[in-house]
Request: fold
Amino acid sequence: MKCQFAAGAASALGAFLYFCCALPSQAAEFDALRQKMVEEVVASSGSTPPDPSVMAAMGKVERHRFVPGWLAPFAYRNHPLPIGYGQTISQPLIVARMTDLLNIKEGDTVLEIGTGSGYQAAVLAEMAKSVYSIEIIEPLGKQAAERLKSLGYENVETRVGDGYYGWPEAAPFDAIIVTAAASHVPPPLLKQLKLGGRMVIPLGASFMTQYLMLVEKQQDGSVTTRQIVPVRFVPLSGGH
Ligand code: SAH
Reply:
């Protein structure tokens, strides 16, 4: 009897110690993995290292909170991961490159098409004044909105809808990022870009070579387009 009591007390103590010690050490482990991910992204960026402000933002955002729980241990690998509904969270290297190309400044207002997990929106929110993000798949959009709120990202507004048409009430934007592949630059998005603004968008059909494009709207209203790197994104869906 006495022995049973002692065993019970020991396992209760064990559980207590687990909750007190294991959780903080798990957080420290994720912090270390995130730091390693940042170093790996910089190392694999070659001749185009992202601005330190981009890497600082990615060093802060807890990517493991944006993937399904069972994938959390893999969250800091330089890979895309499934987030449900046939969609993926982009590879960290691509997130870094796209964010870098946007040249975000502190006072900027940014539009994202394709909220997905909300990870890219969180990275943008660390750098810009406000972020607007649109997702077409309702459960993904709702989940991301709750996640961003619970993580304290108060400068992100989300909406469920077809991002092809942008967010006219919040326009014009300093920067626009499209995180799904389109066949062409959506004219409503170009219209909602400020003079001097930048848009990053993967162009090309799904299952074919797609290219990440940098679209710049010059001060005189003319538009220049530059092909950056071949990429692979899920297609931009919707009724357009
Ligand atoms: N930026 C996301 C990853 C995006 S994956 C992240 O950080 O996790 C691409 C997302 O674009 C998917 O969630 C997909 O549902 C969404 N999408 C596809 N077409 C869309 C459209 N027309 N409007 C808004 N979102 C769209």
About this structure: Residues 2-43 form the longest helix (42 residues).
